[in-house]
Write a structure and sequence with these properties.
Layout lengths: L1 H17 L3 H12 L4 H7 L6 H41 L18 H14 L4 E2 L5 E3 H4 L24 E3 L5 H9 L4 E10 L11 E11 L4 H16 L5 E8 L2 E10 L16 E10 L1 H6 L8 E8 H9 L6 H4 L2 H4 L3
Parallel strand pairs: 1-4
Antiparallel strand pairs: 2-3, 4-5, 5-9, 6-7, 7-8, 8-9
Helix pairs in contact: 1-2, 1-4, 2-4, 5-8, 5-10
The structure holds 3,4-dihydroxyphenylalanine.
Length: about 350
């Protein structure tokens, strides 16, 4: 009997050692200590033994029972801990794992990118941003800029009239007049904004487009300052290989006036459809500000000189990205805009 007891004990201990789940342990416990368990069965036979043997068996089986109960409790604790560890491992979050991209990331419109590049180049030369209204007084859009009513040069820009005195500005130049009247010179301004002209929509025309005006007011302004400024931002936007060319022109608000061409970025200056085989493309108008404009805005033209330029941002964006139809810039087709 004692041997059998020892066998039951060893067997149970080994099984407990290997048990991985609480249910397994319960089963082992039942098979040994339960109502029909092996140890219980042995105890049931005690009545048939004589007194001495009975006492010895009683003692031995109590010891085994106590030992097994302790081991079972230990095993249960071990299994519970292992389970907790497994659960933690499963639920662990790797905080270094890169996130999933759920929403598509937006990007800046090619015109905004172009505008910012020009602006940043000018800000690097000490310019600050200044803005004016899109619905503008005729007086600022034309008269103050040396274009009095009935001046034939008003025909250069086909204007949307709100009434006799109010227009949709045809260029950003009226903001020059506002700045000259409001600010204390010297100053350097970059003036971005929408402008409007009565034009049929086609590949090179839009009734709404974007300009950027530059205005520098100081005591000793020369044409060299103007040329250096324009050269600097053109190279910042298009790269050093692109050439600039100043061509004499006419604007009522500048004297002398010029238009600036850059070597065609599509064909590199060899001649193509975009540059109409000239190798050059116009990007802006500029000049030394006419003393009449300075005087019209309340400053003494003998004391203050200025130069100014007006850039067609659409034109520059098209050249920079090789876009041949201005309408693409305004259609807001995501498939097109995604490319920039
Ligand atoms: N405002 C002119 C245009 O829209 C461009 C321009 C701007 C010419 C400023 C200039 C100037 O001479 O100083 O065509």
């Amino acid at each position: 009997m004692i041997e059998k007891l020892e066998q039951i004990r060893l067997e149970a201990l080994e099984k407990l050692q290997q048990a991985k789940e609480e249910a397994e342990i319960d089963e082992i416990m039942g098979s040994v200590l339960g109502k029909k368990g092996k140890l219980t069965e042995i105890l049931k036979t005690m009545g048939t033994l004589d007194k001495e043997k009975r006492a010895a068996l009683g003692q031995a089986s109590n010891a085994v029972k106590k030992e097994l109960e302790e081991k079972i409790a230990q095993s249960k604790a071990k299994v519970a801990e292992a389970m907790l560890e497994r659960k933690f491992a499963q639920e662990a979050i790797d905080v270094t794992e890169p996130g999933k991209q759920v929403l598509p990331v937006g990007r800046l419109h090619p015109m905004t990118q172009t505008y910012r590049q020009i602006r940043d180049a000018l800000v690097g030369m000490g310019f600050t941003t200044f803005e004016g209204p899109e619905v503008e007084l005729d007086d600022f859009n034309f008269t103050k800029l040396n274009l009095p009513p009935d001046h034939p040069a008003r025909d250069m820009q086909d204007t949307f009239y709100i009434n006799d005195k109010v227009v949709l500005r045809t260029h950003t130049s009226p903001v020059e007049a506002r700045a000259l009247m409001e600010l204390k010179p010297p100053f350097r301004l970059v003036i971005p904004g929408r402008v409007f002209r009565v034009d049929e929509v086609d590949a090179t025309h839009s009734p709404v487009f974007m300009q950027m005006e530059g205005l520098v007011v100081d005591k000793n302004i020369t044409l060299a300052d103007l040329k250096g400024t324009i050269d600097t931002f053109v190279h910042a936007v298009f790269g050093d290989e692109v050439k600039t060319r100043f061509r004499p022109s006419y604007f009522p608000f500048t004297e002398p006036s010029a238009e600036v061409d850059i070597s065609c970025t599509i064909c590199g200056g060899k001649g193509c459809r975009v540059c109409k085989n000239t190798g050059w493309i116009e990007i802006l108008g500029c000049g030394i500000t006419n003393p009449h404009e300075i005087e019209n805005c309340g400053l003494d033209p003998k004391e203050w000189k200025a130069f100014a330029f007006g850039i067609g941002v659409d034109r520059v964006a098209n050249l920079k990205y090789g876009i041949t139809d201005i309408r693409l810039l305004y259609d807001n087709d995501a498939r097109f805009l995604k490319q920039f």
